[in-house]
Amino acid sequence: MTLDPSLQREHETLTRRYLLQMGVALGALPWLARVGDGAEPAKDALATAIDKLEYLTPDATFGFVGRGDPLPYTHPEEKLREVGLLRETWQLEIISDPDSPAKIETPRLIETDNAVDWDELMQLAEKHAVKVLKVMTCNNGNKPLGMGLWEGVPLRELIWSTKPSGDLRRVFFYGYHNDDPKQRFQSSLPIGRVLEDPPGESPVLVCYKLNGEYLSGKRGGPVRMLIPEAYGYKSVKWLQKVVLTNAPYANDTYANGNNDVDSWMKTMARFVSHPDKLKAGESLAMTGVAQVGSGGLRKVQYWLHPADAKWPEDDPNFLKAEWIDAELLAPPTAWGGGLPEGKLPTGVTHIDPATGRPVQWPLRYTIAHWAAVVRDVKPGKYALRCRTIDANGVAQPMPRPFPKSGRCSIDKVEIIVS
Question: What is the model's pTM?
Answer without folding.
Answer: 0.89
